[in-house]
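## retry 2 of 3
previous attempt timed out at serialization; input unchanged, resubmitting
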Amino acid sequence: MQFHTLPDEDGTISPAGIRWAIEAANHHMPKPSLVCVENTHMAASGMPWHPDDLVAVLHAAGELPVYMDGARLFNAEVATGVPAADSCAGITAVMCCMSKGLCAPVGSLLAGQPEMIEEARVQRHRMGGAMRQAGVIAAAGLVALETMVQRLAEDHSRARRLAEAVASRWPDAGCDPEMVRTNIVVFTHSDPSKLLSYLHTEGVLAGTIAPDVLRLVTHNDVDDEGLERALGALNTAP
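## retry succeeded, writing output
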């Protein structure tokens, strides 16, 4: 397998880039066989795709299948107001997590055409993915889908406040609160280890996704009291 990466700083890949990659197969480059997108785009502060941009990607892909990593698909639904099923229309296959913002302890879903799902079941068994007595896990997934989706708006609101605090404390950190529409805040810092250590002493857990790039994530276990603690720590951080 070979990867052909495209610029995605704003959380999207351009239809022109897809068309270029397809045309490049006529000029000694590997022929593409799949287009992959992520919704929401984690590294772009959880930016959700606009449905029109997804349609443009589908048109550019032509006959190529399109796979969506929809780990936070329902965050995108809440942020854009577009139902997940509508934003995935035309997508060949989509995965979404029942954990993360939806709070199930474990589990993901794969959706696609029946023949693809049947093949996926075969591959799952080949990789040892069969599980018996999975009803307990499935029950938690149902609770996640039925009771946790609309609650995601609370996470989005809290993340926006974190982004405002980051932008105020470090104006050059590359964090634009207007771009934070879901539950992830990504920004740069000259000494991530020092900052993470300080936040930890203040009872705030964060992490990195790349050298000098930090990430804050809101979720169901971050309430208003926890948010205020995080805001205070960011305002006094080195």
